[in-house]
From TrEMBL, chains A, B:
GO terms for molecular function: DNA-binding transcription factor activity. PROSITE patterns: HTH_RRF2_2. It comes from Poritiphilus flavus. It comes from the Bacteria. This is Rrf2 family transcriptional regulator. Pfam families: Rrf2. GO terms for cellular component: cytosol.
DNA sequence: GATAAAACATGATATAAGTCATATTTAGGA
DNA sequence: TCCTAAATATGACTTATATCATGTTTTATC
């Protein structure tokens, strides 16, 4: 469904949503252990996310990554799009150029409603929403 | 969503469903042009599909690939599982080992209903069903 | 049987995804 | 102002996916 990169990114963002803020920054070094993702790889992802304002960062001693209020408004789908690109979620299941509502491929009708429903859920759910679910124990994050 | 390999396989099977039978076999050489897939790559996929009884084949002159009645009963999901493996469709969105109904990850509740609906559609739809949709012009197959 | 036409099997290459390593820049604190 | 701790930038390496090429086996036809 998603690539490893997206999954790592989501895990990282969720961890930051729960455990960081402007006054409590988290270093890659620590984060990578908590969420079980290779350090150097996570660095790259976080930099990518920082460039796209999904996470905030500051350099130097006492530096690290954290989420501010604006960061919390990003949706799950935003993050996936940044890391994986839009193609996977936007193109037809068979990647047929000419597939559309008017001239649907055989899989189109079959899955379009459930698929759209799923993508809309991901588009509407913000990082903040997810972190509230976690705080209220409506969801869990076993980070292995 | 699916890999190229799966998409190619589905396109090939659908083409065979529409244009082949025991008395009208189709050679890779021809098939690859019709569905716009590299020949050598398609060969490999077809052999894999033949081994798993998704398609039928016969060697030698007048040989080629075709679908018999049994082949037509395969589901879309069967084919995807054969080519891509089961992991993609069966594991949690974040690939968390311990994610389950009882201890759902934050994305689990969010998408599980629509995701299951989608996967069930793919599981229940056979190649024969799809080919009937095409024959009745309920769907189209622009093979580019 | 000999020939040729097809699938089958295997392996080599290319490209993309994932991982690792190292040097550079920035900023806090002595 | 200098040192050190952090992110940042860049590039090399590895593994998996996708693609290509070549030889082997089977079988219909003459």
């Amino acid at each position: 469904m998603f690539t490893n990169s997206s999954k790592y990114a989501l895990k990282a963002v969720l961890y930051l949503a729960l455990h960081s803020d402007e006054n409590k920054k988290i270093m890659v070094k620590d984060l990578c252990e908590r969420i079980n993702v290779p350090k150097a790889y996570l660095s790259k992802l976080l930099q990518d996310l920082a460039r796209h304002e999904v996470v905030s960062s500051s350099k130097g001693p006492k530096g690290g990554f954290y989420l501010n209020e604006q960061n919390l408004t990003m949706s799950v789908l935003d993050i996936v799009h940044i890391i994986d690109g839009r193609k996977k979620t936007e193109s037809c299941l068979l990647s047929l150029e000419d597939c559309s509502r008017h001239k649907p491929c055989p899989l189109h009708n079959l899955v379009s409603s459930s698929r759209n429903e799923m993508l809309n859920s991901l588009k509407d759910k913000t990082v903040k929403d997810l972190s509230l679910d976690l705080k209220h124990k409506k969801a869990f994050l076993p980070l292995a």
